């Protein structure tokens, strides 16, 4: 149920279910969640990326606990729209998740999301340590909010 098409993804979603946003990095996975009305994305947590089975266990529990009906996964395309090594890695990670998780998944263009979040945190005068602690889950919220804004 993995797709690149937002319309196809929306068709697969059940109403009144929350969405989970993911910002998949090399070492961490930022998680964000929206309300059941798909209005506002909020940062949830940052996971230390581990073995696929460990990541799946945490995601399965999050999906169950928060009544998640779909996942929006940030897809880090190059600025020219091509697939670089990071995008290939995220695409493979999403394919692996798709084999085990029974929720619709959308790969969503996330170009510049981390930079936008970094800039906002700098403007908010957050310390380097606080920025590092929050950037992944805030980037996941930024990615998810981008999708939510596109469907309103």
Short description:
The chain is of the alpha/beta class. It has helices spanning 6-12, 52-66, 85-100, 113-123, 128-150, and strands spanning 2-3, 18-24, 28-34, 41-48, 68-75, 105-109.
Structure explained in plain terms:
This protein has a single domain (2-150), classed as 2-Layer Sandwich (Nucleotidyltransferase, domain 5). Strands 1-6-5-2-3-4 form a six-stranded mixed β-sheet, sandwiched between helices. It is globular and about 35 Å long. The chain is built from five helices and six strands, in the order βαβββαβαβαα. It has helices spanning 6-12, 52-66, 85-100, 113-123, 128-150; strands at 2-3, 18-24, 28-34, 41-48, 68-75, 105-109. The longest helix is centred in the last third of the chain and has 23 residues, at 128-150. Strand 2 (18-24) and strand 3 form a beta hairpin. 47% of the residues lie in helices and 24% in strands. The relative contact order is 0.24. Helix 4 (113-123) packs across helix 5. With 152 residues, the chain is α/β, with parallel strands linked by helices.
């Amino acid at each position: 149920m993995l797709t690149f098409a937002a319309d196809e993804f929306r068709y697969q979603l059940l109403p009144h279910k929350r969405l989970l946003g993911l910002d998949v990095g090399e070492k961490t996975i930022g998680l964000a969640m929206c309300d059941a009305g798909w209005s506002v994305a909020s940062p949830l947590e940052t996971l230390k990326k581990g073995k696929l089975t460990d990541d799946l266990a945490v995601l399965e529990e999050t999906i169950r606990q928060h009544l998640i009906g779909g996942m929006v996964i940030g897809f880090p395309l190059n600025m020219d729209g091509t697939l670089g090594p990071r995008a290939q890695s995220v695409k493979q990670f999403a394919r692996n998740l798709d084999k085990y998780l029974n929720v619709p998944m959308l790969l969503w263009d996330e170009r510049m999301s981390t930079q936008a979040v970094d800039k906002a945190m700098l403007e908010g005068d957050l310390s380097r340590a606080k920025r590092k602690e929050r950037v992944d889950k805030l980037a996941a919220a930024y990615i998810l909010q981008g999708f939510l804004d596109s469907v309103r």
